[in-house]
């Protein structure tokens, strides 16, 4: 049984009967009722659209802000609002002078050819409209012989029409290719000149070009494609608007086109008020793509350093974060384009057709040129022909309305390319101007007093106890098993038994190496350049396969390798110390920023690093740090992880002797066994065992009297 009250059911039945009855006075108002309901539905749709748009925009901005907060702080001075304004056209004009240098250039000739083809297509379009109109007239009047002639005429016109359309696509694609080559060569001439490419990627300040590879390759290609299509997108609609407006005025009077233009004026105003800033979104997408590419490039460039730290999981997390940022942004971008596409379909296509009926009916409504007295055949001809004119006019005006979408996208690419050109021009004009002295905190040589030594030693012992109690984070490196060659055993100590160290080029670096290093027994490895000092530890880390013999080693999480080039991860100052851990893992282990500050104070007694930056600061640390600061942060990383073994490859050469002594003493206090690779004999005093390699396969292991 229905839960609706009986009186209401009777009322609804009465209304239903009134609406469906053939002679009911309400039946004639059914259409008005449907129109009212449709209008209400559309108004509701507009409201929901705006509501969902604003909600989606807020959510997207919150997500991007969460993922890129630090990066946005670094880039906000560079990024400006991108819109189609005077600055955009000035930038575009500067680039056009590069890609179309003169009227004698091949690029300009392609423009001439494109113009001729566009004129031909417009002429053929008018011809086809006339043919279709007369064919419809012959069909209605049953003049089959003339109809057959019209069909043959249409078939003849379709051949050049097809050739012209194909020629337009070919010329547009070739023009895009020539634009890309011309602009790329211009950039290459300026960018790969002297040491500009070095300054653009290695020096800080105004010389830096962010994601130069992305700008030189993808951004120039996208700009070239967009700008080559812009000419046909703008020129043809303008030509069609002029031509078909004239044709419609001739056959329908000025009232017909006036109806269409009034509609497009209103629809253009609506579109302008709902159009989001696509130019800014395009530039943001290119920027995120550049970050994603940079993350992959760092993985290749710093592959050995990352492998030494077993940082694959952390690098994968960084790369996936960059990819997720692209996904979030592009999803939001596509969502906006989808919503705008709905309005484009309604305003430019469907509702424009409704306005078109008013245009086609104008001769009958206003009885222009005796339209009401014309025969059915003539009216059919006029209708088909005028429909073709109107369709082309609507398409042309619609294309002009949609040019706004293209211009905002081009504005984003233009901003990226122009910034690249301006940076390159800056590099060429500035030349080799000396650096300015930056005022810094003076480096204070700290003498460790008895009280300071006591306090530091007490904290180090406390840190040892906390490290013993904190949860273990297992590494995800695959087991180091060789298909052929030697055998690897996981144990507590490090032992080489009859191991050959062979380089990838097949050079024997150490033959039949045998040594056993007990925990707490520091090893100093020395020898001439290229003798294989670092190669021994590449085998130990599992980067190189074990060719022969037996290798006993602890698991990777019990070893930390500090190579000659200190690896600095994308992220904050905190990330440099805890790598390959992230902030979440650091918190899970109960480590705080105060603990990290204590670790830094061991290697940076004057506190210069924390005076200049905070742990949340995010920078390009490779350029922000000095050589000594990079080494200090790398050693603080060792203290943070507190491994059983630490391999130090020439990584204390840029710090003072006082700090160097404090580093080795702290390693002993933390129970870290050190393997040092170095040429400096002064470091030998911190070690009990010395391994000398001669580079010809020979080696010597000796003990020192401490």
Task: Describe what this molecule looks like in 3D.
64% of the residues lie in helices and 8% in strands. The strands form two sheets. A six-stranded mixed sheet has the order 6-7-8-4-9-10, sandwiched between helices. Strands 1-5-2-3 form a four-stranded mixed sheet, with helices on one face. With 706 residues, the protein is α/β, with parallel strands linked by helices.
Question: What structural keywords apply?
Answer:
single chain; 706 residues; alpha/beta; 6-stranded mixed sheet
The gyration radius over C-alpha positions equals 38 Å
Distance between the termini: 100 Å
How many strand elements?
A: 10
Q: How does the major sheet shape up?
A: 6 strands, mixed
Helix content: 55-70%
């Amino acid at each position: 049984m229905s839960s609706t009250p009986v009186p209401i059911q009777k009322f609804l039945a009465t209304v239903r009967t009134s609406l469906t009855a053939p002679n009911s006075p309400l039946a004639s108002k059914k259409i008005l009722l449907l129109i009212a309901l449709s209008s209400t539905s559309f108004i509701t749709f507009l409201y929901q659209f705006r509501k969902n748009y604003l909600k989606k925009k807020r959510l997207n901005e919150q997500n991007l802000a969460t993922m890129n907060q630090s990066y946005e702080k670094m880039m906000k001075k560079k990024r400006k609002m991108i819109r189609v304004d005077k600055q955009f056209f000035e930038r575009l004009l500067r680039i056009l002078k590069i890609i179309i240098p003169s009227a004698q250039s091949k690029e300009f000739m392609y423009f001439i050819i494109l113009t001729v083809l566009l004129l031909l297509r417009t002429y053929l379009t008018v011809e086809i409209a006339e043919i279709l109109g007369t064919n419809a007239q012959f069909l209605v009047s049953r003049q089959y012989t003339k109809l057959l002639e019209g069909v043959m005429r249409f078939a003849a016109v379709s051949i050049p029409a097809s050739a012209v359309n194909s020629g337009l696509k070919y010329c547009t694609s070739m023009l895009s290719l020539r634009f890309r080559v011309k602009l790329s060569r211009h950039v290459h001439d300026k960018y790969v000149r002297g040491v500009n490419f070095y300054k653009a990627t290695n020096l800080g300040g105004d010389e830096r070009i962010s994601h130069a590879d992305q700008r030189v390759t993808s951004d120039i290609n996208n700009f070239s494609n967009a700008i080559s299509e812009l000419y046909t997108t703008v020129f043809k609609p303008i030509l069609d608007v002029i031509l078909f407006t004239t044709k419609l005025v001739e056959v329908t009077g000025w009232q017909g086109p006036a109806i269409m233009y009034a509609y497009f004026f209103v629809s253009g105003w609506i579109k302008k008020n709902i159009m989001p800033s696509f130019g800014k979104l395009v530039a943001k997408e290119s920027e995120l793509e550049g970050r994603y590419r940079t993350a992959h490039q760092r993985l290749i460039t710093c592959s050995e350093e990352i492998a030494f730290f077993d940082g694959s999981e952390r690098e994968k997390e960084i790369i996936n974060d960059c990819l997720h940022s692209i996904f979030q942004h592009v999803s939001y971008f596509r969502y906006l384009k989808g919503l705008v596409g709905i309005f484009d379909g309604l305003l430019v296509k469907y509702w424009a057709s409704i306005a078109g009926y008013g245009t086609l009916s104008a001769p009958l409504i206003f009885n222009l040129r005796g339209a009401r007295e014309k025969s059915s055949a003539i009216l059919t001809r006029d209708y088909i022909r005028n429909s073709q004119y109107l369709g082309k006019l609507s398409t042309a005006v619609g294309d002009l309305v949609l040019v706004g979408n293209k211009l905002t996208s081009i504005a984003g690419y233009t901003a990226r390319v122009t910034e690249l050109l301006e940076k390159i021009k800056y590099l060429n004009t500035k030349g080799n101007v000396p650096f300015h002295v930056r005022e810094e905190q003076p480096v204070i040589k700290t003498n460790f007093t008895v009280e300071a030594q006591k306090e530091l030693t007490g904290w180090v012992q406390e840190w040892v106890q906390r490290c013993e109690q904190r949860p273990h984070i297992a590494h995800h490196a695959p087991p180091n098993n060789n298909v052929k060659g030697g055998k690897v055993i996981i144990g507590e100590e490090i032992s080489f038994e009859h191991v050959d160290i062979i380089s990838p080029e097949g050079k024997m670096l150490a033959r039949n190496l045998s040594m056993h290093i007990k925990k707490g027994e520091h090893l100093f490895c020395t020898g001439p350049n290229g003798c294989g000092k670092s190669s021994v530890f590449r085998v130990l880390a599992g980067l190189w396969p074990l060719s022969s013999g037996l290798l006993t080693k602890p698991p990777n999480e019990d070893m930390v390798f500090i190579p000659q080039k200190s690896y600095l991860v994308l992220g904050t100052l905190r990330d440099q110390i805890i790598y390959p851990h992230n902030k979440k893992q650091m918190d899970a282990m109960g480590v705080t920023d105060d603990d990290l500050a204590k670790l830094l104070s061991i290697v940076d007694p004057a506190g210069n690093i924390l005076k200049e930056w905070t742990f949340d600061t995010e920078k390009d640390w490779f350029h922000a740090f000095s050589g000594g600061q990079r080494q200090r942060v790398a050693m603080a990383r060792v203290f943070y992880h507190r491994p059983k073994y630490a391999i130090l490859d020439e990584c204390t050469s840029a710090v003072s002797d006082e700090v160097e002594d404090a580093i080795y003493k702290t390693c002993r206090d933390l129970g870290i066994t050190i393997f040092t690779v170095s040429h400096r004999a002064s470091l030998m005093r911190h070690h009990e065992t010395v391994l000398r390699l001669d580079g010809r396969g020979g080696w010597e292991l000796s003990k020192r009297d401490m």
